[in-house]
Amino acid sequence: MAEMENDVSPIETEQREYVEDGKNKLVVQCKFCGSKILDKKSSNYIAQEKDLPLMQQASNNDREVQNETIKEFYHVENMYIFENIGFTHTVDNHKYLSCADCDAGPVGYHDTNTKHSYVAISRIVHSK
C-alpha cells in the first residue's frame, strides 16, 4: 500500500491562500471588472454544494439553463456587509447575486428564507 505524501486535500491547500481564521483573508472582487464585492475578513468560508447557473450560457434552442456545482462559498450573514452587489428577482426562494457595476453573474446566491448570502469562490478574484 502506497503512503500518502500529503494529508491535505487540494481544496484545503488552495483555501489557505485566501482564508485565514475561517474568514476571507483578502478583498473579494469581480473577476470581470475588478469591482470590490467584499472587504477583508467580512465573510466566513464554508464548504457546501450548490448548483448555480453558468455565468455564460451556451447557445441552445431548448433554452434549458445550464448549471454548475459549486463547492466553496463565502457566507455573508447580512446583505449590508457587501461593498457592491446586485440581486435578481426571486427564483425558488433564492435571488442570484451579480456584480452591481458590470452585471456579471451569478457570483452567488441569497437565500430569502434565512436572509443569508453565499458568494461562490470560483466566480470571484482576490486582491490585497
Describe this structure in words.
By secondary structure, this protein is mainly beta. It has one domain (20-55, 67-127): Metal Binding Protein, Guanine Nucleotide Exchange Factor, Chain A, CATH 2.170.150. The protein has one helix at 10-15, and strands spanning 19-20, 23-24, 27-30, 36-38, 44-53, 67-76, 86-87, 94-98, 108-111, 116-120, 124-127. The strands form three sheets. A six-stranded antiparallel sheet has the order 5-6-10-9-8-7, with no helix packed on it. InterPro entries: Mss4 (IPR007515), Mss4-like_sf (IPR011057), Mss4/transl-control_tumour (IPR011323).
What would a concise description of this structure say?
The chain is mainly β.
Kindly list the characteristics that best describe this protein:
128 residues, mainly beta, Metal Binding Protein, Guanine Nucleotide Exchange Factor, Chain A, six-stranded antiparallel beta sheet, three-stranded antiparallel beta sheet, 1 helix, 11 strands, globular, disordered N terminus
Shape assignment: globular
Number of helices in the DSSP assignment: 1
Low-confidence stretches: 1-11
The appropriate CATH architecture is Beta Complex
Q: Structural class per helix/strand content?
A: mainly beta
Widest β-sheet, arrangement of strands: 5-6-10-9-8-7
What is the alpha-carbon Rg in Å? 16 Å
CATH superfamily grouping: Metal Binding Protein, Guanine Nucleotide Exchange Factor, Chain A
Number of domains: 1
Helix-strand sequence: HEEEEEEEEEEE
Q: Which fold name is given in CATH as the topology?
A: Metal Binding Protein, Guanine Nucleotide Exchange Factor, Chain A
End-to-end C-alpha gap: 43 Å
GO molecular function, one term: guanyl-nucleotide exchange factor activity
InterPro entries: Mss4, Mss4-like_sf, Mss4/transl-control_tumour
Keywords: Guanine-nucleotide releasing factor, Protein transport, Transport
Pfam families: Mss4 (PF04421)
